[in-house]
Amino acid sequence: MELFQSNIETISNSSSLDLEVPDGLFSYAEFRAIWEKPEQFREAALRYITNPEHPERNRLIAAYAVQKLPVDEYFSFCEGIYEAYRSGTVNEPILQKAMFPVYNFDTKTVDNYARSDFNDLLVKVRMELERRGQATLVKRVDGVLSGKAAQDVKRLRDMGQLPPTGG
To answer: Could you give the CA distance from residue 46 to residue 32 in angstroms, rounded to a whole number?
Structure first.
């Protein structure tokens, strides 16, 4: 078993882990080992997350673990998540946590919404979500595409509730 999978499974086996409050993931050395060097784990993470044989809980942990990827690698990661969603190997909760995590975790998608590659991907994601009747997620993507989410992030940064940059 590779290090990435072993770390994810160790974290997931903790009975005290509550993914409703993902900040708790930072209490695990195994999580921090991935978080601090996500470039080393991007491919392993994408393989793991897109493999439906792994439990959803583990796949969500894996999605959170690589949120600190540099923006271009994160974009590639998001493309892979979108393709897996289209093919049915990733569901809506995983897509949402991978591409639109809570703001205190990462804001890369929001920060880069106007970048042509991100914008094109977001439009494709929106169309697929709409085709599947995922109105709540469509609304979330619309907020990103319109720039409203970026305004919300700026306001939270101005109030000191988020770090100065999302990466």
So the answer is: 18
* pLDDT band for position 1 (cuts 50, 70, 90): low
* Residue range 15-43: mean pLDDT, rounded: 92
Evaluate whether residue 163 is within a structural domain. no
Segment 91-123, tens digit of pLDDT: 999 999 999 998 888 999 999 999 999 999 999
Distances 39 to 44, 54, 79 between C-alpha atoms, Å: 10, 21, 16
The CA distances from residue 35 to 10, 30, 110, 116, in Å, are: 15, 9, 20, 27
**Does 166 reside within a domain?**
no
121 neighbors 82 (Cβ within 8 angstroms): yes
Rounded to whole angstroms, how far apart are CA atoms 95 and 9?
A: 20
How confident is the model at residue 20, as a pLDDT?
83
Q: Which domain holds residue 64?
A: 3-158
